[in-house]
Amino acid sequence: MPTPDESRPLARGEAAPQPGGELTADAAPWVFYGSVAGVLGAALVALFFFVVDLREGAPLATPAALGSGLFRGQPLAAGAPAEPILVLGYTAIHGGVFLAVGLTAAFALMGSTRRRGAATAAGLAVAFFAFFELFFLGFAFLMQPGLVGDLGAGRVALANLLAAVAMALYLLRAPLQAPAD
What we know:
6 helices
């Protein structure tokens, strides 16, 4: 039976079309915008380190080193090739953390009646940056104490700053409203 056209009223006894489970801004705005913000932040950090690794002639060395520290508890051997399983595993964890932060922030912002200006954007960016830095430094210290020095604290900070600013600007422009009762 063909799906009814949304522009005409439903006939008596005709079932309304069911959504296909797609993630849309209309269904749950905080989930949609939070997910996009999280993916945006994770992608910026990953792209930043991909470019850094390419310039140094060692593609994917950073996620491989982080994956080795996370999953094996040891540093990646110098000059070792990037193992796809370490890269993919770390990338999944990395994306999950950013996704969780984006969703949490979008939920917190949903329905906020505060004016969203430059001060709010700066405050949110600072909060994101502080969280990302503290989370990463804690992770690095627990998993592999020399990791921050190996990656470069300045590089990590710059990547986190780019992600924090992009996520804050994106979320503050998102039309997050509380659901109508």
